[in-house]
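[Help] Beginner question about ligand-bound structures

Sorry if this is basic. My supervisor gave me a protein sequence and a SMILES string for zinc ion and asked me to "get the holo structure". I don't really know what that means in practice or what format the answer should be in. Inputs are pasted below exactly as I got them.
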Amino acid sequence: MPSILSHNSDKRSCLLLRLQQTAIRFSMEMSFKSESGLEILSFPVGRLQCNCSLIWNPKSQEAILVDPGDQAALIKEKIQQRGLKLNAIVHTHAHFDHIGASEELHEFSGANLYLHEGDRTLWDNLEMQGQLFGMQLNPMKSGFLPLENEQEFLLGSNKMVSLFTPGHTPGSCCFEIGEFLFSGDTLFKGSIGRTDLWGGDFGQISKSIKSQLYSLDPDTTVIPGHGPVTQIGIERRQNPFVKI
Ligand SMILES: [Zn+2]
Ligand SMILES: [Zn+2]
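Answer (accepted):
No worries, everyone starts somewhere. Holo just means with the ligand present. The predicted complex, written as structure tokens, is below.
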């Protein structure tokens, strides 16, 4: 969902267009290698250019998929090209642009889907989410396993930990692994997620960012749900929406 912070829902289509223009300008495939040797590939998918990410251990080829928002065929191709085996499919939240290909990837890989219980209403009402944005989306048939704060996912000896960060949606989470953070639509480069839709709450997102994210190592690389990467230290110093 758009990275523009706004409380004026009448301008929604305008904001959506602005987001798309911004996102197209910045969206590109990004690859990283962690200090412990994990590989990370992030690439934009769908109309809103959600950053979908694959994290894998090149020794075991085990992988975790974050936010398969759309373009299931493209995501499958990237998994197959590298010969990866998915251990889990995790979601930062259940806006349609982050879960649009989840069902297909679950069927393709057999990996479990994880989402915080706070976003169940969004998951169960995908059709309604689409209607609001003039898109026809089919209801979800698959269920998900509940994601808790500080839940751990293993990739060999590497641990990915979930951080419960409500505010953009009631069940928003981020994922920390090594020196990387997948921040979903909670924290962006120079912005934060909008809080004017479906249970968003500015007080909550602000508290989540200060307590759960700004407390991380300042050198942590932040891979947001849309747009370019940033660092915790940079946002802590410069983010105009949430200041310490
Ligand atoms: Zn989004
Ligand atoms: Zn969103």
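A couple of things worth pointing out: The first helix runs from residue 12 to 26. The chain has one domain: 9-238. Feel free to follow up in the thread.
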